[in-house]
């Protein structure tokens, strides 16, 4: 099968490669770029483990062809850390609030939460739950993930994080 030359910017670096037209973006990211933080879960868009930020939108890279990302700006979990390599507010929130357990869904959750906080810097708990509804976690029951995102929002906004009374 003839291959197509693609170029895109991933985590701030321009990358290129030859891909078959049917190659999925998640495979291009993992296999061609060796960025294995983006996980392959269901391969049907149901779980969100493969979520990346593509031109300012959260997309599930298991149902996007690499050729469709030609010329795009993509952020993966590897691009979420601060430029100096320290944890971003979201990564720190997931760590501090125990928002991860097995960690399989965590990269997709953090990338989706990153876009959510770009769109709504101060979301309510309900808005967070709605915003991550396309990403499944089989371990935490979401309570600590929601706290992690609230923690990050507070840190980004420069206010003290206060957990809601239970």
TrEMBL record:
Residues 9-62 form the 2Fe-2S ferredoxin-type domain. Transmembrane segments: none annotated. The keyword Coiled coil does not apply. It holds the Pfam family Fer2. InterPro entries: 2Fe-2S-bd, 2Fe-2S-bd_dom_sf, 2Fe-2S_ferredoxin-like_sf, 2Fe-2S_ferredoxin-type, Beta-grasp_dom_sf, Diverse_Oxidoreductases. Keywords: 2Fe-2S, Iron, Iron-sulfur, Metal-binding, Oxidoreductase, Plasmid. SUPFAM superfamilies: 2Fe-2S ferredoxin-like, CO dehydrogenase ISP C-domain like. The keyword ATP-binding does not apply. GO terms for molecular function: 2 iron, 2 sulfur cluster binding; metal ion binding; oxidoreductase activity. Residues 76-150 form the [2Fe-2S]-binding domain. This is (2Fe-2S)-binding protein. It comes from Rhizobium jaguaris. The lineage of its organism: Bacteria, Pseudomonadati, Pseudomonadota, Alphaproteobacteria, Hyphomicrobiales.
């Amino acid at each position: 099968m003839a291959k197509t030359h693609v170029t895109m910017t991933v985590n701030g670096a321009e990358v290129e490669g030859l891909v078959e037209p049917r190659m999925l973006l998640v495979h291009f990211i993992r296999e061609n770029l060796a960025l294995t933080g983006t996980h392959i879960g269901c391969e049907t868009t149901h779980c969100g483990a493969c979520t990346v930020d593509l031109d300012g939108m959260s997309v599930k890279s298991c149902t996007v062809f690499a050729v469709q990302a030609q010329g795009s700006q993509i952020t993966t979990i590897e691009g979420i850390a601060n430029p100096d390599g320290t944890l971003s507010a979201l990564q720190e929130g997931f760590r501090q609030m125990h928002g991860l357990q097995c960690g399989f869904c965590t990269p997709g959750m953090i990338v989706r939460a990153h876009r959510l906080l770009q769109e709504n810097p101060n979301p309510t708990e309900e808005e967070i739950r709605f915003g991550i509804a396309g990403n499944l976690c089989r371990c935490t029951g979401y309570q600590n993930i929601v706290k992690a995102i609230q923690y990050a929002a507070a840190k980004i906004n420069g206010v003290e994080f206060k957990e809601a009374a239970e």
